Amino acid sequence: SQTIHQWPATLVQPVGSPLSLECTVEGTSNPNLYWYRQAAGRGLQLLFYSVGIGQISSEVPQNLSASRPQDRQFILSSKKLLLSDSGFYLCAWTTSGSYNEQFFGPGTRLTVL
Amino acid sequence: AQSVTQLDSQVPVFEEAPVELRCNYSSSVSVYLFWYVQYPNQGLQLLLKYLSGSTLVESINGFEAEFNKSQTSFHLRKPSVHISDTAEYFCAVRPNTGFQKLVFGTGTRLLVSP
User: Testing the interface with A: which of B41, B52, B59 to mutate, by most A Cβ within 10 A?
Assistant: First the structure.
């Protein structure tokens, strides 16, 4: 069966520090991968998605970036965190090709102080 | 482009009472519709989905939603809620062709009290 992992589960970082959040999927190949941010009272905002290794699409301008160095690995990064980067970050995947439901990871709670 | 409106940010109900969580969407093309549930500090889980066919869809834990194309709605209902249903519920849509992204509403927090 397929599983999706995210780490760390929680993170407290000072403003201006770098960020690296990791997401890995097991039990499937060539998934479509997604990064969402959930801020209080604002629902889910799609940040990035990827249909293959090295292929990243950005949805909103921001100081975050994403990379997909391996088929089932998706990384969210920042060189310098802002206070507004605080939130709950969710990784999700779907099978490639015809549409199937999105499966979400457990999330990472990021607090920028 | 698509958009989703969940007008109720929070819905308080008593245990065993019925509940309806409202979802309206906007789209110029045909869509798939979804309800996700999120328990505290967890990821989202798919509750139910409408892809085609019968406009009334049901989940295994007693929730149901009805797709109403003329009113562009996909309201979620349950005839009798439990304390364990306390969670945040998200409605989402996406076009039914090609690779498209899910568009989520802002969520409705269901608070069930004894």
Answer: B41
Nearest to A21 by CA among A101, A105, A95: A105
Give the contacts of B82 (CB within 8 A, at least 6 positions apart). Answer: B15, B16, B112
pLDDT digits (tens, 9 = 90+) for B58-82: 998 899 999 999 999 999 999 999 9
Percentage of chain A beyond pLDDT 90 is 72
Which of B6, B46, B104 lies at the smallest CB-CB distance from A101? B46
User: Tokens representing A10?
Assistant: 């929680």
- Given an 8 Å threshold on Cβ–Cβ distance, is B105 in contact with A43? yes
- What span, in angstroms and rounded, lies between the C-alpha atoms of B12 and B112? 6
Place of tokens 């008593």: B14
| Distance between A78 CA and the closest CA of chain B, angstroms | 22
Is residue A11 exposed (0-12), middle (13-18) or buried (19+ Cβ within 10 Å)? middle
